[in-house]
Design goal:
The chain crosses the membrane at residues 35-56. This protein is mainly α. It has helices spanning 2-22, 31-66. The longest helix is centred in the C-terminal third of the chain and has 36 residues, at 31-66. The two termini are 25 Å apart.
């Protein structure tokens, strides 16, 4: 379970880094705001990916029990 969560966190981190680099803000923001934005984006990506992964895992496990 711990390895799965770490793998999901690594995937979320890669997606966050890619999306952060592709984001071109016209206005220069402060460094602290960049860190806060990165951390919140990481949390959002991690929550969405975890929800999909564990949701699909629970549904497939439930379907195996029904068979």
């Amino acid at each position: 379970m711990k390895k799965t969560v770490l793998n999901l966190l690594a995937i979320a981190s890669v997606l966050t880094t890619i999306s952060f680099l592709l984001d071109r803000d016209v206005v220069e923001i402060s460094t602290t705001m960049r860190f806060v934005e990165y951390i919140f984006m990481l949390a959002i990506f991690f929550t969405i990916i975890s929800g999909f992964y564990f949701g699909i895992k629970a549904v497939t496990k439930r379907l195996q029990i029904v068979k």
